[in-house]
Write the structure tokens for this entry.
Amino acid sequence: MITVRREGEGHVAEIVLDRPEAMNAISTAMAQELGDATRELAADPQVRCVVVTSSHEKAFCVGADLKERNGFSDADLIAQRPIARAAYTGVLDLPMPTIAAVDGFALGGGSEIALSCDIIVAGESATLGLPEVSVGVIPGGGGTQLLQRRIGWGKAARAIFSAQKFTAARAAELGFVEELVPAGQARDRALELAEQIAENSPIGLRNAKKAMRLGADADLHAGLEIEDACWRATAFSPDRAEGVRAFAEKRAPRWPGA
């Protein structure tokens, strides 16, 4: 049974979480499919932006499949771990810009999938949070690292240590979510934003993301060196030549790069 689908044939691709009977709880099979989907997209030179969505109107993803895990031995849990990590890091490491479209519940691993994206668009009815300590584990899909980088140490510590859940409005106030939209409209807005992003240079988009990601934890001097390397990789590309030419000719660019 397919639980993760890829949709879209142009420059914008969707990763659709599609296990509605379990509110997209992440089973081992679903984690494997998410990792496979991200590997496929990462290698596709035509894709300029990726939107992660859900087929369930009331849930983006409720986190790990605890019913499956309830039957796990320690050996089973150890065997699942690299599959789960590859799913989350697959989203995080996509070279093109990524947007999470969150409506309904995004808890635990669901919030971690969203946090692995560059931008989160949430419907007003969304609920987000990392409640893992309430069931005896910790966020293990990047949550302890990604949330603090978005909202700061103290706010992230309070949220994680107290297993706090956020309304979409509160998440937006904290900077957990970049854009708040009416309930049920997160996917439409995310796709609209993705189309706007995809109008830009594919080489420029990938190198801008690379510079931001690699420089995020570097000191300023090292970050500027990273930026310079990414600038050089872009400035001497066919995209730069086409961009300047299109500007001079007052027309839309026809990007050759990927």
In short: The CA atoms of residues 1 and 29 lie 9 Å apart. The first strand starts at residue 4 and ends at 7. The chain has a mean pLDDT of 96.
